[in-house]
Task: inverse folding
C-alpha cells in the first residue's frame, strides 16, 4: 500500500537548529547550524511509518529574519508545487516559532488550495536532550495527511495541539506549551491513536479569501506602534516619514492609544495613512466604534497587532477605502 506523499519545506528556526552541546537550550540561536529540510526530515525516521516525503529547497534562517518577501516566495512555491504535483497530500513547513504565526496567517489568506498546509516549530533545538522536534514533526506529518485537515485553512501544530494560523499566537519564550488560541481555543489534538478535531475555523481563508498570491508581488509598508503610559507622537511621525501606507495601533485595552499618540494617529489618518486600532492585550475584539468611523480609522476585530498588520498590507493591495478594508477585517 502506497503511503501518502507530503512536501516538506524548511525555513530554519529552532526546529532546524543543531549545536554540539546537547544541554544548550539557551545560546543556540546565536551559534547553531541550520539544517535544510532534507537533513532535518531524514533525522526523524519514524515519519516513514506514515508518509513518503519530497523536500523542497528554501532558505534556512532564524525566524526573526523572515521577511514579507519570504512569505510571498514561500506561498508561490507551495502553489507551484501543488499545481505541478497534484499527488501531494499536504505540506509541512518547518519554521521558527518567533514568527510562525505571521507566516501562517499570510499563507492562510493567499493560498488557493484546500490541501492541508501545516506549519511546525519547536522550543528546543534538534540537538537538545528532550527536544520536542521529533514529536512535533511527526504530529505535523500526521495532521497533513489526515482527511479531516482538508479545507481547514493553514494550521500550526506543536505540543500535540492543532491551531488555526489565524488564531494561534506565541505566549511564552521557553515553555513547550507556548502556543495558544486565546479567544476560541485550539482546533484539535494529535493523540497516539488518531487526529481529533473539535471545531473548524469559520472566518474565510485560502480558497474563499479575496487575496490570491498569483496577484501579489510586493506588500506596502505597514508598521505597528505600541502604546504605553506617556507615549507621544515620535513613533507615529517616524513611520509616516518612512513612507508607511498603514499603521496598526497596539493600543491600551480596549483599543485606545495614549493622548499624544492619538493626536499623531489622527494626523496620519488625515494624510491618507490607513490606521487600524488594535489592542496590546493579546485577545479580545476591537470594534469600529463611532470615533474610529469619524476619523476614517478601522477596528482590528480580534486580530493581534502582528496579524492585523498582515491583513492591512494585503488589503492595501486592493483598495484604500476604509469601509471596504473594514469588511476584510470582519470576514477574514
Result:
Amino acid at each position: 500500500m502506497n503511503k501518502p506523499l507530503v512536501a516538506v519545506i524548511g525555513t530554519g528556526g529552532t526546529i532546524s537548529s543543531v549545536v554540539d552541546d546537547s544541554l544548550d537550550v539557551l545560546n543556540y540561536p546565536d551559534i547553531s547550524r541550520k539544517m535544510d529540510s532534507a537533513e532535518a526530515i531524514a533525522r526523524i525516521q519514524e515519519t516513514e511509518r506514515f508518509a513518503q516525503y519530497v523536500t523542497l529547497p528554501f532558505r534556512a534562517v532564524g525566524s526573526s529574519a523572515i521577511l514579507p518577501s519570504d512569505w510571498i516566495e514561500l506561498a508561490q512555491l507551495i502553489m507551484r508545487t501543488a499545481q505541478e504535483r497534484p499527488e501531494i497530500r499536504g505540506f509541512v513547513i518547518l519554521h521558527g516559532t518567533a514568527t510562525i504565526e505571521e507566516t501562517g496567517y499570510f499563507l492562510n489568506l493567499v493560498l488557493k488550495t484546500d490541501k492541508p498546509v501545516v506549519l511546525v516549530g519547536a522550543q528546543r533545538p534538534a540537538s537538545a536532550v528532550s527536544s520536542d522536534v521529533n514529536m512535533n514533526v511527526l504530529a505535523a506529518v500526521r495532521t497533513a495527511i489526515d482527511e479531516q485537515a482538508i479545507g481547514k485553512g493553514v494550521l500550526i501544530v506543536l505540543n500535540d495541539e492543532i491551531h488555526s494560523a489565524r488564531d494561534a499566537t506565541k505566549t511564552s519564550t521557553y515553555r513547550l506549551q507556548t502556543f495558544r488560541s486565546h479567544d476560541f481555543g485550539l482546533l484539535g489534538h494529535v493523540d497516539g491513536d488518531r487526529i481529533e478535531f473539535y471545531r473548524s475555523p469559520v472566518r474565510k481563508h485560502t480558497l474563499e479569501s479575496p487575496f490570491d498570491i498569483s496577484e501579489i508581488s510586493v506588500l506596502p509598508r505597514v508598521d505597528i506602534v505600541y502604546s504605553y503610559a506617556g507615549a507621544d507622537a515620535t513613533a507615529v511621525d517616524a513611520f509616516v516619514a518612512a513612507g508607511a501606507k498603514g499603521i496598526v495601533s497596539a493600543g491600551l485595552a480596549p483599543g485606545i492609544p495614549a493622548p499624544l499618540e492619538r493626536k499623531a494617529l489622527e494626523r496620519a489618518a488625515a494624510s491618507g495613512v490607513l490606521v487600524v486600532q488594535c489592542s496590546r492585550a493579546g485577545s479580545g475584539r476591537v470594534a469600529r466604534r463611532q470615533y474610529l468611523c469619524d476619523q476614517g480609522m478601522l477596528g482590528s476585530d480580534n486580530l493581534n497587532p502582528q496579524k492585523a498588520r498582515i491583513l492591512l498590507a494585503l488589503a492595501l493591495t486592493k483598495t484604500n477605502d476604509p469601509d471596504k478594508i473594514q469588511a476584510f477585517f470582519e470576514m477574514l
About this structure: Residues 245 and 272 are 8 Å apart (CA to CA). The first helix runs from residue 28 to 31.
